Amino acid sequence: MKNFVIIGISDNPEPWFPPEVLRVISAGRVFSGGKRHHEIVAPLLPKDARWIDIKAPLDEVFGQYSQLPLSAEDEGKIIVFASGDPLFFGFANTVKRRMPDAEITVCPAFNSLQMLAHRLVMPYHDMRIVSLTGRPWQEFDRALIERTGKLGILTDREHSPAAIAQRLADYGYTYYNMYVGEHLGNPELERVTALSPAEASGRDFSMPNCVILHADNVPARPFGIADRDFALLDGREKMITKMPIRLLALQALELPRRRVLWDVGFCTGSVSVEARLLFPHLQIEAFEIRPECEAVIRENARRHGAPGINVHMGDFLTCPLPLLRSAQAQAEAPCARPDAVFIGGHGGRLRDIMEKVLLYLAPDGCIVMNSVKAPKVTTDSHQLWDEACRELGLIQEPPTRINLNDHHPIEILKCRR
C-alpha cells in the first residue's frame, strides 16, 4: 500500500512550512509535483531525493508511483507538492480516484480563490466554485443561467480570464464585476485587478490566475419566453413552437430528472433555448437540416443568454451520431445517451427518425412531438406518429390537447419503449 503526503503550496518562491511538515520533507526520499513546484521546493529537498514530474499523461506518473519499492526507512512515503488545497479540485482527488487503497495525508495551504477573496476582503462562504481547468464550459454556463451572484472560477490557458469575459459579453451577462488574481502568493509577481467584462476581453493575463465574478443585482431567470422575443426563420411566425405549447412539451419530457435532451428539427431553436434556461443541468444537442437555421438558433441563444447548446447541421438520418461529447466530458459523465428527445420537424420521415433515435435512446427515455390537427389533410402527423409507434413497438401515453386562440388544435404526443 502506498503512503502519500500531499503538501499544498502557493506561488511564493520562498515557501513557509510548519515544523512538522519540514520534518516530513527532510526525512523523505521520493518527491513529486509539477515543474513549477520543483523549482520552488528544490532547496528544501534532501540531496539524494528522487523527483517524479507530474505531467500528462498521468498514466505514466501513476505507473512510476506503483513501481516504487516500499522502504522501511521512509515508510514508503511519496511526498507530493500541489497548488493550494490538494482536496480542492486538486491532486489528492486524483490519487483517491486512481489508487483508492492508498493512505493519504493532506497538509493544505489556502487555495487560489481563497487567497483572491482575502486580497479583496470579500466574504466567500456564499461563493459558488467552478473549475474550467481542463474542463468544458458546461458548469460555468449553468452557473450563469442559474443567476449565481458570486462565482469563483479556476482557469487554464484556453479558459482564460479574457475568454471568460468574452463569453459573458456574447451572452449578455455583463452585469458582473470581474476580479482577476495572478501569481497569488508570489510577493514579486502577484497582481489583483478589478475590471468589467468589456475591459477584460482581449486582454492578456499571466498564468497562474483565477477569477471571481460578483454582482449585487442579478436579474431574475425567465419562465417562458414571449414568442415575439425570438428571432424567426425568414420572419415566419408560424415556424416557432408557441410558448404555451413549448412549456407543455418540456413538461412532457420530464426534464428535471433528465440528463441529455435531443431537439431534432429545431428550426428557430425555441425549444432548445427555453429548455436551456429552465433546466441548465441538461446537455442539449440540437439538430436541423436547413442551413439557414444555424444563424437563427445562435442568435436566439445569444439574445436570451443560453450558452452551451450544441448545434448539429445536416440530415439527421445520414449524419453519424457518436456520443457527441469531448473526451473530458465523457470522462466526467460517460453516459451521453439521450433520455429525452423532442421532434420538432420530420419532413415526412417520422418513422425513420424515430427508428434512429431508438438506437441511442436511454432505456427509460421518452420521445415527445407536437401534432397540429389541421382540416383537409389526408395524413396528419398524429397518424404518422401512431403508425411509427405501432411498427417500432413503442408505448404511447394519452396525448395532451390544447387550442390556442383561433389556431387549429394541437396535440402533445409522448411515447417510450
Describe the structure.
Helix 13 packs parallel to helix 14 (381-392). A 7-stranded mixed beta sheet has the order 13-12-11-14-15-17-16, with helices on both faces. Strands 3-2-4-1-5 form a 5-stranded parallel beta sheet, sandwiched between helices. A 5-stranded mixed beta sheet has the order 6-7-10-8-9, sandwiched between helices. Helix 13 links the parallel strand 14 (340-343) and strand 15 (366-372). It folds into 3 domains: 3-109, 3-Layer(aba) Sandwich (Cobalt-precorrin-4 Transmethylase, domain 1), CATH 3.40.1010; 113-214, Methyltransferase, Cobalt-precorrin-4 Transmethylase, Domain 2, CATH 3.30.950; 227-416, Vaccinia Virus protein VP39 (Rossmann fold). The chain has 417 residues and is α/β, with parallel strands linked by helices. The radius of gyration is 27 Å and the shape is elongated. The protein has 14 helices and 17 strands.
How would you concisely characterize the structure shown here?
The protein has 417 residues and is α/β, with parallel strands linked by helices. The chain has helices at 19-27, 35-41, 58-67, 91-98, 112-120, 138-145, 161-170, 197-200, 243-252, 270-278, 293-303, 327-332, 350-358, 381-392, and strands at 3-9, 30-33, 50-53, 77-83, 103-107, 128-131, 150-154, 177-182, 191-195, 209-214, 260-264, 283-288, 309-313, 340-343, 366-372, 395-402, 410-416.
